[in-house]
Amino acid sequence: MDVEKTEKIKELASLIKRSGSTVFFGGAGVSTESGVKDYRSEDGLYKTVKEYGVSPEVILSHDFLCEHPDIFYDFYYKFFLQSAPLPNMAHKVLAMLEERGMLDAVITQNIDGLHQSAGSKKVYELHGTTERYYCNKCGAPFSRCDVVRLKGKVPHCALCGGIVRPEVVLYGEGLPDATVRGAVGAISSCELLIIGGTSLAVYPAAGFIEYFRGQSIVLINMQETPYDSYASLIFRDKIGEVFSEVIKLI
User: Computed over its alpha carbons, how large is the radius of gyration of the chain?
Assistant: First the structure.
């Protein structure tokens, strides 16, 4: 590890130890290290245009689910349910920090549930989760297992026959009010905001950063973001690698 990166690692560890309130805001880059595909990467889900003739945004929309549930679930099963990814070092370190009282909350744009799998308790899932399901007609709850065992077939409610859908915010739907309030409250009241694995280009989630009124913003992302000028510390590295070194100093 070069001297500059070593010093930045030390500075981040120091910021976390001194902060009275720290929040982590993460995007797809947090989970790609677990093998989860990124919509916008070169080998991501945009390749599905060739197979389905439409973009992932169209398939993963409320209207498409209602009109073409068979295609929706064929796509959804292939990309979200065929394998169960495991938490990586970034997820694990964030859970450790929360357990030690050094992290107040995780705000994530991801829907894979990996933060909870790693042990995080206070997680605001802006876009919902692939771990829970419910009937679109009567609201009856269903589990991931109920849907996985159908292997891409459309799941129907045993009570009313309605289509079972994931508790995910589909395109064309608004973010959950309670989740938004919790996330905004956490960001607006923290001293240190660590942002990782996100281009901060997806709205409305990226706009949440504007509510920050604390002392320091740390950015960990492989590419530049529109908020780089607001950060006191920037890493162009994988989040898991950064956190693996930081936790050694805390």
Answer: 19
Q: Give the pLDDT score at 44.
A: 52
* pTM for the model: 0.92
| Domain 1-36+86-127+174-250: homologous superfamily in CATH | TPP-binding domain (3.40.50.1220)
Average pLDDT over residues 225-246: 95
Instruction: Answer whether 25's CB lies under 8 Å from 103's CB.
Output: no
Whether 89 and 243 have beta carbons less than 8 Å apart is answered as yes
Interatomic CA distance for residues 132 and 143, integer angstroms: 5
Mean pLDDT score, 216-234: 95
Active site residues: 127
Residue extent(s) of CATH 3.40.50.1220 domains in the chain: 1-36+86-127+174-250
Band of residue 238 on the pLDDT scale cut at 50, 70, 90: very high
Fold of 37-84+128-168: SIR2/SIRT2 'Small Domain' (3.30.1600)
**What does each C-alpha distance from 207 to 14, 125, 201 come to in angstroms?**
27, 15, 9
- In this prediction, residue 43 carries a pLDDT of 55
Pairwise CA distance, residues 250 & 145, whole Å? 38
